[in-house]
Design a protein that fits this description.
CATH superfamily of the largest domain: Metalloenzyme, LuxS/M16 peptidase-like
Strand order of the largest sheet: 1-2-6-3-5-4
CATH architecture of the largest domain: 2-Layer Sandwich
Strand content: 15-25%
Oligomer: single chain
Radius of gyration: 23 Å
Distance between the termini: 48 Å
CATH topology of the largest domain: Cytochrome Bc1 Complex, Chain A, domain 1
Largest sheet: 6 strands, mixed
Shape: globular
Structural class: alpha+beta
Order of helices and strands: EEEHHEEHHHHHEHEEHHEEHHHHHHE
Number of strands: 11
CATH class of the largest domain: Alpha Beta
Number of domains: 2
């Protein structure tokens, strides 16, 4: 599925994917900003405040009722983190016009309301609606503080925070609680106006009969200035391995091992790295699952994940506290096997099949069709699913080995119990 590009305004790009595969028209709007301590909390709070009401529908109830009257149109907002970019995300989904009565009018009304929510927010005296603002501010602060109750998510976050100390990627995508609590509605509103006027904005649409979309979205009240250039991702020049043991009252320890990679999304060997991560820990046939969980019986779960924009590979395992040393050793050994080129034909082929199957499965979900473009959007290079599948299929053992040789262990973090041996 390919996207046709239209420029709506300076730095506002519209991407249309015309297809009759789905029964909906799905729209996502992404506003990019640099991930920074000064703005992370504000950027995380803005989508939560915006969704509470608009000028035409000044309460959440009225906005929801409007969407229900449009044959159950759906909308939500969030914030994403891709490398060292923080991305405000807005989602709208409505029945395809040809499937409902007055379908064209429904689409027009829905897009008008959605556009108002984003580009012309409800305000009072040059500030966000204060009741909405303070309510969502408290909710966001509570949510960020509550991450400690999800031990796996907390451990991964603490490992990344330690691994990327002093780097923008070390910031949580929802900001720090202390920063959230300091926010004021006037300053956050002014910051959002600056985002709307100067930051890169991309709009993706997947559905059928989209010929009106450039005109309809172009009619939103854009007030653009010169486009702001966002800085590229930072690269750590020297990697020194560190070990961190954190003790809490937990029965199951969480082990996180963070590796720096020599490849990122724009690197020639990126797909070798993608396959290397798959062979290491993305599937039930992967080295970590087979050797750490099945053979050694050391882990309740174990997997690896790749952040291709920043260039980080993270291994996560739930283990008994006393198994820490043995688990770390076996994980190191599996990475070393990749680096030595100890890769079977079965591992390589099953991994490539698994990655390609995942892409094909994604093509059955319009939101996923859009989301897969986020990393390409950040790096200004969108890649079609067909291109990606072809590149994965062409990866050789030698390319996997070369990519794996660029892995450097940066951080070993373990969240363990007070009496654990870790």
């Amino acid at each position: 599925m390919n996207f046709a590009h239209h420029q709506i305004a300076e730095g506002v790009d519209l991407y249309l994917c015309e297809t009759d595969k789905f029964a909906t028209v799905t729209v996502k709007v992404f506003i990019q900003d640099s991930l920074a301590l000064e703005t992370a909390a504000a950027n995380a709070l803005i989508p939560l405040v915006l969704i509470q009401g608009t000028k035409s529908y000044p309460t959440r109830v009225e906005l929801v009722q409007k969407m229900e009257n449009l044959y159950g149109a759906a909308f939500w907002t969030d914030v994403e983190k891709i490398g060292e970019r923080q991305i405000l995300e807005f989602y709208f989904d409505v029945a395809a016009p040809h499937l409902i009565p007055n379908g064209r009018q429904v689409l027009r009304e829905g897009l008008a309301a959605f556009g108002e929510l984003i580009t012309d927010p409800l305000a009072e005296g040059g500030a966000f609606h204060r009741d909405f603002f303070h309510k969502e501010q408290a909710n966001l602060a509570k949510m960020v503080a509550g991450i400690i109750n999800d031990k796996q998510a907390y451990a991964v976050w603490q490992a990344v925070k330690a691994m990327c100390k002093g780097e923008p990627y070390g910031l949580y995508k929802y900001g720090e609680r202390e920063q959230i609590e300091k926010l004021e509605p006037e300053a956050v509103y002014a910051h959002y106006q600056e985002l709307l006027q100067s930051n890169p904005i991309a709009i993706f649409v997947v559905g059928q009969s989209l010929e009106e979309l450039p005109e309809l979205i172009g009619a939103w009240p854009w007030r653009r200035k010169a486009l702001k250039e966002l800085p590229p991702v930072s690269v750590k020049e020297e990697v020194r391995e560190q070990e961190i043991i954190e003790t809490q009252d937990v029965h199951q320890a969480v082990l996180v091992m963070g590796y720096r990679t020599a490849q990122r999304y724009l690197s020639p060997d990126y797909y070798g790295l993608l396959v290397a991560n798959g062979i290491l820990g993305a599937f039930p046939h992967s080295k970590l699952f087979v050797n750490v969980r099945e053979k050694a019986s050391l882990a309740y779960y174990v997997d690896s994940s790749l952040e291709g924009s920043k260039g980080l590979l993270t291994v996560t395992a739930g283990i008994a506290p006393q198994s820490y040393g043995q688990a770390v050793e076996i994980i190191r050994r599996q990475v070393a096997e990749l680096q030595y080129g100890t890769i079977s034909d079965d591992e390589l082929n099953r991994t490539k099949i698994g990655l390609i199957s995942g892409i094909r499965k994604m093509l059955d979900d319009p939101a996923a069709v859009i989301d897969r473009n986020l990393i390409g959007l950040v790096h200004k290079e969108l890649r079609s699913p067909q291109m990606v599948m072809e590149r994965i299929a062409a990866v050789t053992k030698e390319q996997v080995q070369k990519a794996a040789q660029g892995l450097q262990l940066d951080t070993v973090y373990c969240l363990s119990g007070p009496k654990g041996e870790a």
